[in-house]
Amino acid sequence: MDTVTGLETRELRYFVAVAEELHFGRAAERLGMAQPPLSRAISQLERRVGATLLDRTSRRVTLTEAGQVLLEEGRAALEAVEAAGRRAQRAALAATGQASVVLTAKAGASSELLAKLLDAYAAEPGAATVDVHLCGPGEQERLLRDGRADVALLHRPFDATAGFDTEDLVTEGQVVLLPAGHPLSLRSEITLAEVAELPGLPLPRWPRRDGSFADGPGPQVRDHTQVLQLIALGRACAVLPESAAATLGRDLSAVRVSDAPDVTTVIAWPAHSRSRAVAGLVQAALRL
Amino acid sequence: MDTVTGLETRELRYFVAVAEELHFGRAAERLGMAQPPLSRAISQLERRVGATLLDRTSRRVTLTEAGQVLLEEGRAALEAVEAAGRRAQRAALAATGQASVVLTAKAGASSELLAKLLDAYAAEPGAATVDVHLCGPGEQERLLRDGRADVALLHRPFDATAGFDTEDLVTEGQVVLLPAGHPLSLRSEITLAEVAELPGLPLPRWPRRDGSFADGPGPQVRDHTQVLQLIALGRACAVLPESAAATLGRDLSAVRVSDAPDVTTVIAWPAHSRSRAVAGLVQAALRL
DNA sequence: GGGCAGCGATACCGTGGAGGTATGGACACC
DNA sequence: GGTGTCCATACCTCCACGGTATCGCTGCCC
What's chain B's average pLDDT? Predict the structure, then answer.
């Protein structure tokens, strides 16, 4: 019953590649190896786990139940291994004073909070230097998970905080950003349904994790300034947390969206982090 | 900068063994191998991570900063890999209808809640069979982390819920259990300080994670019934959540402890669990 | 201080297994 | 039935993992 598996990351990497491609040949190519050894490695993995992971005919490869589970969990496990290596690496650099704690935040969001946090932490005795890593939406989660970052500012309910420790910092409502002078910009409130129907002002489309875009009418965007620019040009509108609209230029105006869910900015870190610098940052954030 | 590490679990296992033993010879023995290949594997790992992990003289081995980080993170990563294998294994069994979701709870705690939960879930259409795994304090966390269990009932603030998704179920105060007829058993409330001073009734000592016991006057205990028995015998007292005292025999009595922290029973599951059965259990728990 | 014991590193060697090439066999499509 | 696609099998090669022997350093004890 207690079959000790003892999987190797190599096997997991192979399996994830095949499970993602659902094609041994392409997976082998992606892994930079020939197809036969890959086939063998997978069947060996199946023997070791004691379960069929892939149903394969010569025409089609599909995941079994067990395979789906292993894909999901295997990805997480691989990320954990990567994270371990990277964090050790960075700990060594930090010890020699070359680098330090990496904080990641969504570019353009919570910038005021971020500035206050950095100031407050820097004022503490023995504060480490903080590298700030601004990135696109959804990317922070990955950075935190795979060890390239130590702390993140995330926004519920948009970002997945599963598996991290978090502390809530601030909760705020959302507003819709409109071109200045838009007829509705004088309203005191608006509903999501109304926003969705705004003629000529579709919501922009953000890239998904794999970089592709969902279908729809809105313009494709990759970062925050693009959005602001598109709104100013009268080609789009956007629903954002109030603080993101705090420092608006004259060409934009904001209207509160009454039925949009509240957004909570949280500070998040890997569950078992023992870093003094991370703890200090969290303390500083809570004192704000 | 973006040095892709590509660690293997074998290397991590070796490192964790050495880091725990702080002795290459003993670690090699524990791993069932000779010492020289272990030394080599570690230095190879150090080259790969790009950092010294262990400071070694011929007399003493100590962890560097980076080593401490890798020990902590590496353990977690190894557990994640194990968990991936085990969960895939169990998913295969579940698909053939042989086994199913494993729920773990502290033996003797929340038994009424547990019974209600199992009943409520079993009444649902399409409910999977639930294996209940009762275990000693602190053990559930490990089971959940390494994939032997799918859901756990945990008790804040005693159990570490870091890295899991949780939902709060009930919060309750704590009581001290005394032998029936004890002079203080007629009091309506008592303080922790008073409990600590009770003449002849020390608090029992639970085993730590490694199985050893802290020093102190109290009797060593390993499970809940031992505690109840010792109290009935007039050899100890214990501070427990109210619900644990709900079904007392005639030989025990409970007094509310006014300044003990509230205990929250939570249902916890691995952060990225996609299992329908787990989701169903959580739903059922929240409806209680 | 010299001898000794403990411990990690180095040198060298053998074997298992990971990966490569060639080919077989099943299936879909024309 | 021919052909192309795709995974599995057969067979070979070579690297690297693990084993044995030994060195070199360090602290300890007489």
Answer: 87
